[in-house]
Design brief:
The chain has about 260 residues and is mainly α. It has a domain at about 120-165. The chain is built from 8 helices and no strands. It has helices spanning about 1-10, 15-55, 60-80, 85-115, 120-150, 150-165, 170-175, 180-260. The relative contact order is 0.04. The mean pLDDT is about 80.
């Protein structure tokens, strides 16, 4: 721009009016460019400062501290359950790897949704999983039917089903009992189930109340952390400004003393 200005100035032939107008236009353009650069720097600085504030004193930092506290509580619970440190680290690394894998899968899905040609890939993959699940279910049912018509495998399958269903002597004992005894047992079982249901409902109400209190206390704790971090940051800025003001005052006094000498 400066080279073009000097070239046009030399081409004007020394005209003072054209020269002054060209200087005015160049000055306005230069001041506008400087103003735009300053506004861009100001906006960039405000965004960086906002990002730093959110990282240090915002809800992201509070959520990070809350997550780290929960992780430490879980590790302490595992130590109380007689887990070794190596086993705890293996469990922790496994959970971290699983979460990272889920996050990578989520980001991959977002990237695929942004590309028109690859947007149908998640749908195709989901359909393929459903097809594989139905195929495995049909294979299991067909194998079960095939085992039922073969002599050796049919007996083994019936024995396994009988073993899984439980011992037969309980069924035989129930058949021998009179109807009045069975009715009394059913009534007693119903009463016991009602009492268990009442206890479960009471415990659930107590648990919900405690969870509400915990959430409320946790919100107060997070707000207190945010206020404390904000206060520390403001105090740090104030101390820096005060130190700078004292240094400037001391520099001014030293300059004044040197000038008086």
């Amino acid at each position: 721009m400066a080279a073009e200005f000097h070239r046009y100035k030399n081409a004007c032939g020394g005209s003072g009016r054209k020269d002054s107008r060209l200087k005015t236009a160049f000055g306005k353009f230069h001041s506008e460019r400087v103003r735009d650069a300053f506004l861009w720097w100001k906006r960039k600085s405000e965004l960086d400062e906002l990002s730093q504030d959110l990282h240090e004193t915002g809800p992201v930092r509070a959520e990070y501290w809350r997550s780290m506290r929960q992780i430490e509580n879980m590790k302490e619970f595992l130590r109380n359950e007689k887990y070794t440190e190596s086993e705890i680290e293996i469990l922790y690394e496994g959970v971290c790897d699983r979460n990272e894998g889920l996050m990578r899968k989520y980001l991959t899905r977002l990237r695929l949704n942004q590309e028109p040609k690859k947007r149908v890939l998640p749908i195709v993959w989901q359909r393929w999983r459903e097809y594989v699940g139905i195929r495995k279910l049909l294979k299991f049912q067909l194998n079960r039917c095939q085992n039922a018509i073969e002599p050796g495998k049919a007996d083994m399958q019936r024995a396994f089903k009988k073993w899984r269903s439980g011992p037969e002597h309980l069924t035989t004992e129930l058949w021998r009992l009179p109807i009045e005894t069975i009715v009394q047992l059913a009534i007693r079982t119903t009463k016991d189930l009602d009492e268990c249901g009442d206890q479960i409902a009471e415990n659930s109400a107590i648990q919900n109340h405690l969870m509400m209190q915990r959430d409320e206390f946790l919100n107060y704790y997070i707000k207190g952390q945010i206020l404390a971090m904000g206060y520390l940051k403001d105090r740090n800025k104030f101390v820096k400004m005060q130190s700078c003001s004292r240094w400037l005052w001391a520099q001014r006094m030293m300059t004044k003393v040197d000038f008086e000498r």
